[in-house]
């Protein structure tokens, strides 16, 4: 598993690009319609608030003048508008949620497609440019991105509409501030609105100054949480090995290391969240004081009725709240920026071309052509020079050499997984199959595991049972439709036999085996190779193996050693 370093990459404008593709996709009509509906409802909702402001003015003036009859007459309309505005608000939330889910699903499908194409999932784990914990990025970050972006975006649109609507009201009913100072006469129209803007700007500036480190801390927090989760998954996946080694203390130490990172960074998050909360809540508490000060001249001149004050207060509060959008959403904005950063990083790594170094061409023949092939390490240091080699259809080659000489790397290069080095490789890739040393056994039914990567209905039961029998797994023939965690149930040797049974079902034109029978006893290993010869007599075969006993099943060999490859025919 990869772990995260402590550095937070700089935030780049390019990260915001991950937000756009959905709005230009085949779903764009749905997306824009839902967004348009949501914004329309939001404008309607704000307009109802403007109406309530004016209604309060009339109602309280009548109320404090003791005109109870007029007040009662105004109530039915009030109830009706309340009902409408509540309905508008609930429908807006509903549309937002629908849009959020559609956006998330679309993005997740795109990311999964990118992740599972051109072996990006492999490059992310083994390549020189990595992005840690792709599972978290696809499952959690995408969900957060859509939910947060819509929430913040719609809140921002709400804020702008509210600001525009109430700024007019506040400007009109707030009047003009006129005073003399040092022999000069001042005349400030819309001074209540200007006062609200100034107060909010000062508060936002203070918040940015004291809260900025929260963005980096949030970014790191997501990394560290993902590291812990991946560490726990490692324990789950390797529980048996850990139990055999008695590795509980080592695991405890390793997981505690992740926890220490979380705790240290969490302290930073908590400290800055405290600051941000303190500043924004203190501001909320004192924000009406400037209004009272600004209204004092009107009150002293007895030019302020309770109805007027109530309307001014409501308009001032709305203007203030909409200007405070940044203040109230600072923490969410910080989280969104770090989520976008992680997704941008993922996109960059996934989209990096894997077409470098060793080049692979697809051909239609079962002949494997290798031209001027050199295998290097990722840092450019040489592993082995293979040179030119043609493996004719039906030939069987054994690849031998000391540990670390580059045998597996050679097969990885043929499979297109190893790009470090140079040269060309071509063969019929659609008709080729690679069997690695550690077989992959997906959970589900045994039929699923056996047919992998084909679908479970691809081969009929009799054919599956015949393949199992050929690899000495006849005892499992009646359990084909039994669902289990077969990767844990089958022994490593049985898993290797299952993998060879897959090859018997798939009938590849070219079969590559990388120590694919290494966990087996001599008898079973011989039996597997006999089965391969019997059932796939025309298949080209390239096997990496240490056991000399396998020489009889091959007619040529490649011996790797001292950075070179030697080719020779094998005596039977
Ligand atoms: N991802 C990697 N990053 C850096 N070096 C690597 C990587 N994978 C393999 N190597 C190096 O490449 C060399 C060849 O490795 P390879 O696995 O091909 O050896 P091998 O001959 O198959 O060994 P064995 O018989 O032990 O399986 C080794 O020195 C190994 O350390």
TrEMBL record:
<dbReference type="GO" id="GO:0005886">
    <property type="term" value="C:plasma membrane"/>
</dbReference>
<feature type="transmembrane region" description="Helical">
    <location>
        <begin position="29"/>
        <end position="55"/>
    </location>
</feature>
<dbReference type="GO" id="GO:0016887">
    <property type="term" value="F:ATP hydrolysis activity"/>
</dbReference>
<keyword id="KW-0547">Nucleotide-binding</keyword>
<keyword id="KW-0472">Membrane</keyword>
<dbReference type="InterPro" id="IPR017871">
    <property type="entry name" value="ABC_transporter-like_CS"/>
</dbReference>
<keyword id="KW-0067">ATP-binding</keyword>
<dbReference type="InterPro" id="IPR027417">
    <property type="entry name" value="P-loop_NTPase"/>
</dbReference>
<dbReference type="InterPro" id="IPR003439">
    <property type="entry name" value="ABC_transporter-like_ATP-bd"/>
</dbReference>
<feature type="domain" description="ABC transmembrane type-1">
    <location>
        <begin position="34"/>
        <end position="335"/>
    </location>
</feature>
<keyword id="KW-0813">Transport</keyword>
<keyword id="KW-0812">Transmembrane</keyword>
<feature type="domain" description="ABC transporter">
    <location>
        <begin position="368"/>
        <end position="572"/>
    </location>
</feature>
<dbReference type="InterPro" id="IPR003593">
    <property type="entry name" value="AAA+_ATPase"/>
</dbReference>
<dbReference type="Pfam" id="PF00005">
    <property type="entry name" value="ABC_tran"/>
</dbReference>
<protein>
    <submittedName>
        <fullName>ABC transporter</fullName>
    </submittedName>
</protein>
<dbReference type="GO" id="GO:0140359">
    <property type="term" value="F:ABC-type transporter activity"/>
</dbReference>
<dbReference type="GO" id="GO:0005524">
    <property type="term" value="F:ATP binding"/>
</dbReference>
<dbReference type="InterPro" id="IPR011527">
    <property type="entry name" value="ABC1_TM_dom"/>
</dbReference>
<feature type="transmembrane region" description="Helical">
    <location>
        <begin position="186"/>
        <end position="207"/>
    </location>
</feature>
<dbReference type="InterPro" id="IPR036640">
    <property type="entry name" value="ABC1_TM_sf"/>
</dbReference>
<keyword id="KW-1133">Transmembrane helix</keyword>
<dbReference type="InterPro" id="IPR050835">
    <property type="entry name" value="ABC_transporter_sub-D"/>
</dbReference>
<dbReference type="Pfam" id="PF06472">
    <property type="entry name" value="ABC_membrane_2"/>
</dbReference>
<feature type="transmembrane region" description="Helical">
    <location>
        <begin position="75"/>
        <end position="95"/>
    </location>
</feature>
<feature type="transmembrane region" description="Helical">
    <location>
        <begin position="152"/>
        <end position="174"/>
    </location>
</feature>
